[in-house]
Design brief:
The chain is mainly α. About 80% of the residues lie in helices and about 0% in strands. It folds into 3 domains: about 190 residues, Growth Hormone, Chain: A (Up-down Bundle); about 50 residues; about 220 residues, Up-down Bundle (Growth Hormone, Chain: A).
Length: about 475
């Protein structure tokens, strides 16, 4: 086999080993977004903190990533993706050590912010580096591996966190990142080629970065506070208005600069825009499912917490096995059919979950959740490949950043929707109006609430399926 002609595509063995380094970083950043959730009761006892203060341990990390992901992607395009990725991974690893040594809750939250600053470069640029270092014939399979890392990190966080806390203590949730981060940095620095930055060294768009960060940050905070205080409260409404104003100013500002952080004309590409919308809808499905499963398994069916952690691992394990296969199918048959098939599987899984009730057995639950993990893995691998293939190489960074943003916004949007449906139907079934009594309701009412929340999975995936079918028909008609 002749060596590749492009210097940014290394030989076979080096690029697949390099993928392991990038994948390790992506797995760690997604894992640390969810692993702390299971530790909140432990942190409350250790620091003597209130729930309102504890919520900022996970929230500070996620907000930094969501707010700055497009800026990090653009910095990678301008200054070199490998350099920016290694900087972010080094900062993430150092901040993880500080989190593990934090003397107080305030310091832990501050170090989580710093950890988020590092993670945002890993989030924004991991997929872009893989897209650039693999030829198009292998890109789907390689991005499928990255999709596996994302899915495993998000879903296995609570399970891994529970075992770490039980065996060696909460500080090791962060300290274990140190050897993994150092190993990943060594692999990436040695095996990933030096990816040249954009040849046009135009000034960085600080105005656009600030405005889009304000818009995304306000939107994320509005969802967070709206979930707790109600979306009719003054603070969520004010944040939504701030988001709209910042977004409008962003669009005006981007039309006036030579090197915008986000070229709005990218969205004129139908394949690119549809892929981002489908990704967001798919992660609405995953976010609704992940939020609902603990209530369904622990409160509705009465499983102990250890069993809940293991049962929640079924879907991501299936997804991790399936994603590289889905990427290979995408390389061979094209991403559109694979994306459509994956979303149809997610629809099926959501419908099966919404029909589970009292007396559900472990085998029946496993068979119901399996299509969600299988379908999501097929979809994510193929759709990521389609999005990256639809833009020029110099736009890989911003495309990867937008895919990361779609994932984050999808999950952030899913949680308040699923929570509202869960409360509405559970309380309605029990004939109770007091939200404080929600988790004390009988299992039959809680199960009714979770069934309604699971339907979000099917509805969001069904909307994505319709878009996937439309794009497939449009592209086939264009070729004919």
């Amino acid at each position: 086999m002749p060596p590749p002609s492009r210097p940014d595509i290394p030989p076979d063995s080096r690029r697949w080993l390099g993928l392991a380094g990038i994948g390790s970083g992506v797995f760690m950043y997604t894992l640390d977004g969810s692993i702390v959730n299971v530790a909140l009761p432990t942190l409350a006892q250790y620091f003597g903190a209130s729930l309102s203060a504890l919520q900022w341990v996970p929230l500070a990390y996620v907000l930094v990533i969501a707010t700055l992901v497009l800026g990090a992607a653009r910095l990678g395009d301008v200054h070199g993706r490998k350099r920016a990725y290694l900087f972010g991974l080094a900062l993430f690893t150092a901040a993880s050590a500080l989190c593990g040594l934090a003397p107080s809750l305030g310091w832990l939250i501050a170090f989580r912010v710093l950890q988020g600053f590092g993670a945002v470069f890993v989030s924004a640029l991991g997929g872009a580096i893989i897209a650039q270092t693999f030829p198009q014939s292998e890109r789907g399979r390689a991005l499928g591996v990255i999709s596996s890392c994302v899915t495993l990190g998000i879903a296995l966080g609570p399970t891994i966190g529970a075992f770490i806390i039980d065996w060696i203590g909460w500080r090791w949730m962060f300290l274990v990142n140190i050897p993994v981060g150092l190993a990943a940095m060594t692999i990436v620095s040695r095996l990933i080629p030096d990816l040249a930055p954009s040849p046009r060294r135009l000034p960085f768009d600080w105005t656009g970065t600030l405005l889009i960060a304000t818009a995304i940050g306000a939107f994320s905070l509005a969802l967070t506070f709206g979930q707790r205080a109600g979306f009719g409260a003054s603070l969520p409404i004010a944040l939504f208005m701030l988001c709209a104003a910042a977004l409008l100013l962003f669009l005006v500002a981007e039309a006036r600069v030579d090197a915008p952080i986000l070229e709005v004309k990218l969205f004129a590409n139908r394949s690119f825009s549809a892929g981002l919308v489908m990704s967001m809808l798919a992660f609405v499905s995953i976010g609704a499912t992940s939020f609902t499963l603990p209530f369904f398994l622990q409160l509705g069916l009465g499983f102990p917490i250890a069993a809940v952690g293991l049962l929640m691992a079924i879907s991501p394990v299936i997804g991790a096995i399936t994603a590289p296969i889905g990427g290979g199918l995408s390389d061979r048959f094209g991403p559109r059919w694979v994306s459509l098939t994956g979303l149809l599987c997610v629809v099926l899984g959501g419908l099966l979950l919404s029909r589970l009730g009292e007396g559900t057995t472990v085998p029946r639950f496993a068979l119901s959740i399996a299509p969600v993990g299988f379908g999501m893995a097929l979809f994510a691998a193929a759709n990521n490949s389609a999005v990256m293939n639809s833009v020029a190489r110099e736009r890989f960074g911003i495309a990867s950043g937008l895919l990361s943003l779609a994932r984050t916004l999808g999950q952030s949007t899913a949680i308040p929707i699923a929570a509202a449906l869960f409360a509405l139907f559970a309380l309605g079934h029990a004939g109770v109006v007091d939200h404080a009594a929600l988790l004390r309701l009988p299992p039959s009412s809680l199960l009714r609430g979770t069934q309604a929340a699971f339907q979000v999975t099917s509805i969001a995936a069904l909307l994505g399926t319709a878009i996937a079918a439309w794009i497939l028909i449009a592209e086939r008609g264009k070729r004919s």
